[in-house]
Amino acid sequence: MNARAVTSDVLLGIVPIALVIALWQAIAAFGYAPASLLPAPGLVFTRLARQLVTSEFQYEIGVTLFRLFAGFSIAVVLGVGIGLAAAVNPAVNSVVRPIVRVLAPLPKVALYPALLLLLGFDHASKITLVAADALFPILLATYYGASMVEQKLIWSAMAAGTPRRQILFKVVLPAAVPSILTGCRIGLVISCIVVFLAEMITSTDGLGHLLVTAARTFQAVDMFVPLITISLLGLILNGLLEGLRTYLLRGFPEV
Amino acid sequence: MIKVRAILSRLAPLFACIGLLGIWQVASLILNTDSFPSALDAIRAIPSILGDKEALINILASLRRMAVGFSIAVAVSIPLGLLMGRSRGVASFFNPLLMVIYPVPKAALMPIIMLWLGVGDIAKTLVIFLGVSLPVIYHGFQGAKAVEEKMLWSGAAMGLSAAQRMVRIVLPAALPEILTGCRTGLVLALITMVTSEMIARQSGAGNILFNALDMGQYDTVFAMIIIIGAMGIGLDAAFENMRERLVRWSEPRFDLPLSFS
User: Fold this and answer.
1) Which of A10, A94, A193 sits opposite B105 (nearest CB)?
2) Domains plus CATH for chain B?
3) Spatial CA neighbour of B86 closest among B97, B76, B78
4) What are the tens digits of pLDDT across the range B215-253?
5) What CATH number has the domain spanning A37-248?
């Protein structure tokens, strides 16, 4: 791919986003929709810029980010751990497999009322929900990555004198890293979505709560601001993970 | 012996269900609080919900919205995904837009969509549509991109037009991948359905669940969780069954869902 093709791709990609914003602006400007239903994009982005520097808004973002990272970290630790164990050990596999088959398609949001009743209305219930939702993509990706490790690699490591217990960390885990990172990426987006929803359902702080309060008072501009913020957060976190991926996988052939 | 093992592995998910319910039962007996009824109590509350005509109509209305939203999303997303996979221009046109939309919680759009379209079926179906489309587009895109060029060349050499190649070569070749996307979409449809109804408290399964929570009817809360969970597991199993039949020719795949994005 030469540089010119890449630039034209980027330009082509900006077109639909620009079109959407232009359409939005046009609908608002020509009065097809009253400002109370669809505020002009300029208005929304100015409000966003003004909100971003206030300490209250930063506090809400902080609360949301804390829940997001707490839940996501638990999901990564559990997902990678259980996924590796299930891929390596047949006994663990035969227990984990049916449980995952049952729990993975379960809509986790429906569990939220139960978590509320058990863990209270504070951080714990939201973090658990985020962890439960992000767990399965990471677990499954780890499992597939680890069980697809080429047998030859393991044999070579054993021939080179690697002790059996070290093979897991020296061969299987590194070989599964690309797959694990893909799972983490999916899990991260899910975490963003779920933390927002949980805050919308019951919360006294966080971005989701901001949206709900704005919706109750019909402040259309304030409804768009938290939504755009969470999408931006998602994009930034995704970009960071992508950077981590290129750093971690710098020695791997074409990924 | 082989037969016994096959039957055992078929029944394994059932054992898992029973085991999880057992853990629940024991945990509730140990904790022994009003807000955490035992598994048996919750199961006992199910018939009274399903027997109630209004609740049944609510749940069926939920399922209808889900079916409509899911079908429209699949009908739109598969052609779009395939086109994106085969044409670089289309892909670079839509990719950034989809990337921006991806991390937006679709159900969180509900309050805004409600402002425009009201609390009725249209708003909820639209949200389900948005939730389902992205994974299906993405998997269709991946599937179409991976089609072997040689097959397309052979098709072209035998005189198939571009549209015919799309339908007779690309679509079947990408089908396993597309169906994986649809499976993810199906679970997402259920999730968005529950959340949208919880935000627009008017009708549906999500409404029953969260109203019961607000009114402190804990048996009903947990019974509804079982019902919605069973819907998820049942729909997923049914879809998997169909998928296996449709793409039996493809390489043997894992029986676990590959992605739950």
Assistant:
1) A193
2) 35-246 (1.10.3720.10)
3) B78
4) 888 888 888 888 888 888 888 888 888 888 887 776 555
5) 1.10.3720.10
